[in-house]
Amino acid sequence: MKTKHSWLTGLFLSILLVSCTSRLDDNSNTSQVATSGSWRVTLFTDSGNDETTDFAGYTFTFNDNGTISAVKNGTTQSGTWLVTSSKFNIDLGPKIDANKPLGELTDDWKILSSSNTEIRLTDDNASSNEFLTFTKN
Q1: Which residues of 98-129 are buried (b: 16+ CB within 10 A; e: fewer)?
Q2: Domain CATH code at residue 62
Q3: Res. 22: pLDDT tops 50
Q4: For residue 95, is pLDDT > 70?
Q5: What is the C-alpha separation between 32 and 26, in angstroms, rounded?
């Protein structure tokens, strides 16, 4: 019985270690993916309302130094970004009417998934019902 208990404990710890390692690798990969080119918003919902068209024409670049630039029609707005644990933090200024639509992206986003061509996020506050997807240009 003691051998079975030790075996199960070892199995549990191995699974826990692998899942934690995968999570760290995924987030590290998200940073690498984000800095690998320019991006556009292909989904933005706020309280269930699709506001994706507000970001038409914007190109986003995530730089290695933690800055982000949003460019539309030759006008650039700068901010900051950071990936930590399971979060993708974006700060493009305050969430006020004068800073729409870019201020809407200022948030602590939870990473749903990332690939070489897409980064899918949701607001870390589940009750806000906000989703954001960046697709590589």
Answers
A1: eeebbbbbbbebbbeebeeeebbbbbbeeeee
A2: 2.40.128.270
A3: no
A4: yes
A5: 10
> Residue 26 contacts by C-beta under 8 Å, 6 or more apart in sequence?
111, 114
Which is more confident, 12 or 61? Answer: 61
Query: Beta partners for 44?
Result: 132
- For residue 83, what are the β-bridge partners? 88
Q: Which helix (H) or strand (E) holds 68?
A: strand 67-72
Q: Render pLDDT for 57-73 as a digit per residue (tens, 0 to 9).
A: 999 999 999 999 999 99
Structure tokens at 100: 């729409």
CA separation for the pair 132, 41 (Å, rounded): 7
What is the residue range of 70's domain? 2-136
pLDDT, residue 85, reads 83
The pLDDT confidence band at residue 27, using thresholds 50, 70 and 90, is low
Q: Residue 60, SS3?
A: strand
The structural domain count of the chain equals: 1
For residues 67 and 29, what is the distance between their CA atoms, to the nearest angstrom? Answer: 17
Q: How far, in whole angstroms, is CA 112 from its chain's centroid?
A: 8
Could you tell me the two tokens for 79?
């901010």
